[in-house]
Write a structure and sequence with these properties.
Chain A is an alpha+beta fold. Helices cover 44% and strands 9% of the residues of chain A. Chain A has two domains: 308 residues, DNA primase, PRIM domain, CATH 3.90.920.10; 99 residues, no CATH class. Chain B is mainly alpha-helical and 403 residues long. Chain B has 20 helices and four strands. In chain B, a hairpin with a 2-residue loop joins β3 and β4. In chain B, α4 crosses α8 and α13 packs antiparallel against α14. At the A-B interface, α8 and α9 of A face α6, α7, β3 and α8 of B. Chain A: Pfam families: DNA_primase_S.
């Protein structure tokens, strides 16, 4: 059965199309303007995106800000690589019509500005940054190609089920920390369509962060310093690790390293690979010892245990045996694990309020796959190789026939993703926006009363 | 102080520097005169440095550093008083709250080599937005959006408030200046204000001037003779791999602009290299826009200035990156290899490494310059384009003398 890894929503719903049936379709895989036109006409969840971006300001509450949605920047990348920035819309219909008309190959979402981006030039004369971002989700971008030095199965733009656990790790570590340490609740994880994941933190508190605060959060997560020009990439020296670091190690990194990556990536099976790890041990007598041992031995095939596991055990034994007193060795095992597993963020994406990020439910031009949400609670079940593609979805639409002309994504493989987006993310978010709006409104009323009484 | 910071002095060295400078410039037998001098000079500087984004940024950075050190030197009472004056939204933990998080607080303290908190220590619970520096350095325990700050970390809280307060004041001062005062004072204060601000910031190399502009055929030769190590490394990597990531493209690209490479030549140069890896079509589509952007021909048409050493040193190159300052970001082994490739003797390399160990990255670069050109460089290197200019000057003088 197909499994999109969403939580137990609609367990009773029967999957209309098996994976095999989808594959047999007559629509060839690919990505082009015609497919996209249909996608935007029938499948892209315009209304849900509008509701999200309105954060409750599209309702009837007296405290609503009717200008809010219109001050959000969207940017469209068109077929001929024309890039339209500072697009803004005043209603769901305007947004939807513009998307259908322009058929953008990529839609990016920018910040909410102090004024409608379409009017920015009028304010530029006043000088002093009167046109500037005032709200923006806290975002993260994790790209598999940043892990090329620690994965052997693929490189560059490819991803597979052997290296995808690196993304799972990133989601688990970051999601938990955002909730536990920073107190955020409304977090959306999205598959980037090809080789990574994006994270959107949508709490009001997050949207109001300035660049310095965003940089601080990005730095809080930063552990990995350096590149091929400097040796030591992770340095965990010190008598203790910060609770966030030790928790990430104990709850996620160690587990995934030992149970998935060690064997999945065969990190110690060849000389080239194990040498990379041995080079991280600052004591040459120890690394030399292991090197000799491993170069010489080749376990006979009757041994049951995987060679990577055996060697890792030997390495740990020597380094953690308690005979090692040198401070640099104390954390060597952890540092190795961190190097191979710890999330690698693109700092620049997180630090700047005006950084544009691709909208969820876009289709990736190179893979044809839809940027679907990922459920962080079940992210270990997410399979990037079976994310619905544009061609598959159009095939499903075809087969559903004209009776389904208006219901769009319902009944297709996209249904689960959209309903997950709505029930797990959008509804709770809008509910809390309403609460926030109410309390802000009440506070303002009370203040008004105080002011009018106080003289 | 600006000089001290750019030479990578450590916090307590800066503290000593501040005390020394204070004694030298601000002393006066009459204490109220000292205070006047302090206040007046601060406001004069506000006026001088409010007028552009760059000036404001520089002044904020200096004034914040100074404030931080002066605050540290004050007694605990005064510190507490300042905190309440700034109306900081902090709450001291109750005993029971403390007990609940004691262990985690201890773990954090040990991770940053600080004394363990006890029942008597004052710990504050503060929204994390108030203490970005502490969060960035993982120097506080974090729980549900609150940072748990120790008394001795309090300086950070106050400094952030000071900085934000001063930043707003500078913007207001600028508004008033441009709308009223500049015109009113054009015969009195304005000329003084304008002269004062330009004497502190060095040339920014945004308009390459007197020396000969270079063209593509010169590049390999001048790279070899006159590029500082940071740019040589980027240049060599580009030639080798026919690609650079964004940080590297910016750092090298802007440097080349400052060195006098014209836009057309720049486009041709990058194109030759990148097309070997990604093809000319992709280059034209994805990379040429950014090059034109750097030259101020696209978008908001800002003519970007080449990065100074300070900016390069504080950058954070990640995986696959080659920008940054090699004296800071390279391992000892790799740095020595790179220096030797430049023709630096191993004895000089030892001196250079000594500077690096003390985090005097710019002095290390200056030493390299001196070794390669066999002459002294008294000014000290604080901008890659300065290195280039000085180098070219020397080489041209020598070739002229030889004729």
């Amino acid at each position: 059965m197909t499994d999109k890894g969403n939580n137990g929503v609609d367990e009773m719903q029967v999957d209309v199309y098996t994976h095999e049936q989808r594959k047999k379709g007559s629509i060839p895989e690919g990505f082009n303007a015609d497919y996209l036109k249909l996608y935007y006409a029938k499948l892209f969840p315009h209304v849900e995106i509008f509701k999200w971006m309105s954060y409750g300001n599209d309702g009837k509450h007296p405290a609503r800000d009717t200008s809010y949605f219109g001050r959000r920047e969207f940017s469209f990348t068109l077929d001929n690589d024309v890039y339209l920035r500072f697009q803004s819309f005043n209603s769901a219909a305007e947004l939807e019509n513009s998307i259908k008309e322009k058929c953008p190959f990529k839609i990016d979402i920018g910040p909410v500005y102090s004024v409608d981006p379409a009017k920015r030039h009028a304010y530029a004369q006043a000088g002093d940054n009167v046109f500037k971002p005032v709200e923006r989700e806290l975002v993260f971008d994790i790209d598999m190609s940043d892990y090329d030095d620690v994965r052997y199965c693929c490189s560059g733009a490819d991803v597979c089920l052997s290296c995808w656990p690196l993304m799972t790790i990133a989601i688990k570590v970051i999601d938990f920390t955002l909730r536990e340490d920073f107190g955020f609740n409304h977090i959306l994880w999205v598959y980037s369509g090809r080789r990574g994941v994006h994270c959107w933190v949508c709490d009001g508190r997050a949207r109001r962060l300035n660049n310095e605060q965003r940089a601080a959060i990005a730095d809080y997560f930063r552990v990995y310093k350096g590149n091929e020009n400097s040796h030591r990439k992770v340095s965990l020296a010190g008598p203790a690790m910060h609770p966030f670091i030790s928790r990430s190690y104990a709850d996620v990194l160690k587990l995934f390293f030992e149970e998935k990556l060690l064997c999945g990536q065969e990190l110690l099976s060849t000389e080239e690979r194990f040498q990379m790890i041995l080079d991280m041990i600052p004591d040459e007598s120890i690394s030399g010892q292991l090197q000799e041992r491993w170069k010489a031995s080749w376990r006979p095939s009757m041994s049951k245990e995987d060679i990577n596991i055996v060697r890792w055990g030997q390495l740990k034994h020597i380094l953690q045996s308690g005979k090692q007193k040198a401070p640099v060795l104390r954390r060597c095992v952890e540092e190795i694990v961190f190097t191979y597993t710890y999330p690698r963020l693109d700092m620049e994406v997180t630090k700047h309020m005006n950084h544009l990020l691709k909208a969820p439910f876009c289709v990736h031009p190179k893979t044809g796959r839809v940027c679907v949400p990922i459920d962080p609670e079940h992210c270990e079940d997410f399979d990037p190789t079976s994310v619905p593609s544009l061609a598959e979805l159009l095939e499903e639409l075809n087969m559903a026939g004209s009776s389904n002309a208006d219901s769009g994504w319902e009944g297709t493989s996209l249904a689960k993703s959209v309903s997950f987006f709505k029930s797990s993310f959008l509804q709770p978010l809008l509910k809390s926006c309403k609460v926030e709006m109410e309390s802000k409104y009440n506070d303002a009323k009370i203040q008004e009363m105080k002011n009018s009484m106080s003289w | 102080m600006s000089d001290g910071l750019s030479r990578g002095k450590k916090p307590d060295e800066i503290g000593a520097l501040v005390t020394e400078l204070w004694k030298e410039h601000m002393q006066h037998p009459n204490p109220s005169d000292v205070m006047n001098k302090d206040i007046i000079s601060h406001f004069v500087l506000r006026l001088v440095y409010c007028r552009t984004e760059d000036l404001r940024k520089w002044f904020l950075s200096m004034e914040t550093t100074l404030f931080r050190h002066r605050f540290r030197l004050e007694s605990l009472e005064v510190q507490r008083m300042l905190m309440s004056e700034f109306k900081l939204p902090f709450k001291a933990l109750s005993n029971s709250e403390f007990e609940a998080v004691k262990e985690k607080l201890g773990q954090v303290a040990r991770s940053i080599n600080q004394p363990l908190p006890t029942v008597d220590s004052t710990i504050f619970k503060v929204p994390f937005e108030e203490v970005p520096e502490l969060v960035a350095g993982r120097r506080v325990y974090m729980l549900k959006g609150d940072a748990y700050v120790a008394m001795n970390q309090v300086a950070s809280l106050v400094v952030t408030q000071f900085r934000s307060h001063l930043s707003k004041a500078l913007v207001l001062t600028n508004r008033k200046w441009t709308s009223m005062i500049q015109e009113q004072e054009k015969d009195r204060l304005t000329p003084i204000v304008e002269a004062l601000s330009s004497s502190y910031l060095g040339p920014d190399y945004s308009q390459p001037k007197e020396y000969a502009e270079i063209s593509i055929k010169d590049i390999d030769r001048v790279a070899n003779s006159s590029f500082p190590l940071c740019m040589r490394h980027l240049f060599d990597k580009l030639r080798e791999e026919h690609h650079l990531k964004h940080g590297g493209r910016m750092q090298l690209g802007l440097f080349l602009k400052g060195v006098g490479l014209k836009l057309d030549d720049a486009l041709a140069f990058w194109r030759v290299e990148f097309s070997k890896k990604v093809g000319t079509e992709k280059f034209d589509k994805e990379y040429s826009y950014n090059i034109r952007h750097n030259y101020g021909k696209e978008g908001k048409r800002t003519d970007y200035t080449p990065y100074s050493c300070q900016r390069i040193i504080t950058s954070t190159p990640g995986v696959g990156d080659h920008h940054g300052c090699p004296y800071r970001h390279f391992s000892e082994e790799n740095l020595r290899a790179a220096l030797s490739k430049m023709g630096v003797s191993s004895r000089t390399a030892d001196d250079v490494m000594d500077k690096v160990r003390h985090r005097h990255y710019q002095l290390a670069c200056t030493l390299t310059f001196e070794a390669i050109h066999s002459c002294s460089c008294d000014a000290g290197i604080n901008h890659p384009n300065q290195y280039f200019t000085e180098s070219q000057k020397i080489l041209q003088q020598r070739s002229q003398a030889a004729e």
